Amino acid sequence: MSRIQCPRCLRPHSHCLCPLIPSIDSRTRVLLLQHPSEVNHALNTARLAALGLNNAELIVGEVFEDLPALLNQSGYRARLLFPADDAQPLQAYTETEEPLLLVVPDGTWRKARKMLHLNPLLAGLPRVTLAEGGVSRYRLRKAPGPGALSTVEAIVQALQILEAPVSFEPLLKPFEALIEGQIAAMGEETFQRNHGPR
């Protein structure tokens, strides 16, 4: 028998995160393109980001038929937050008149690359990148490399750069509560054995 879920945050009612989810305005519009395999993931951080940002939209899929309309939103310049040799640092956009439409693929690196491959319009967007050396608070997962962040962490870092001095840290509150809940459920001993310092 499955537990009753909150229809908003998709967590079991007993672990609902909605009271911790902020409601933050941003000049930057965030478009999250989520791979279907992430929807039911216990740590669905893209959903948390979309719920906490008033100027964000979350779309689930692998191929996005309405991508032209999504990317050509009046008053915004679309940029893909994804690494590439020619990706520009987000700091280059802090003084621009026209706000960004920050397009963020959500999935494993392999699945995100597949989404780009299946959506040439997406792959063709100019890319932007975060400053190197970001440290993830995602203590339950081994990062694939230095600077690897969860989706919500990457969005917070991007918005902190683009919209300083506005703070987007409140977006991380439900994320941190989610991690603490997972650690509590597995027990400190199991957490230390599997995720503690080596």
TrEMBL record:
E.C. number(s) listed in UniProt: 2.5.1.25
Keyword Disulfide bond attributed: no
Keyword set includes Transferase: yes
Biological process per Gene Ontology, one example term: tRNA processing
DTW domain sequence ranges: 2-187
An MF annotation (GO) of this entry: tRNA-uridine aminocarboxypropyltransferase activity
Keywords: S-adenosyl-L-methionine, Transferase, tRNA processing
Top EC group: transferase
Protein family (similarity comment): Belongs to the TDD superfamily. DTWD2 family.
Protein's name according to its UniProt entry: tRNA-uridine aminocarboxypropyltransferase
Native species: Pseudomonas silesiensis
Upper classification of the organism: Bacteria, Pseudomonadati, Pseudomonadota, Gammaproteobacteria, Pseudomonadales
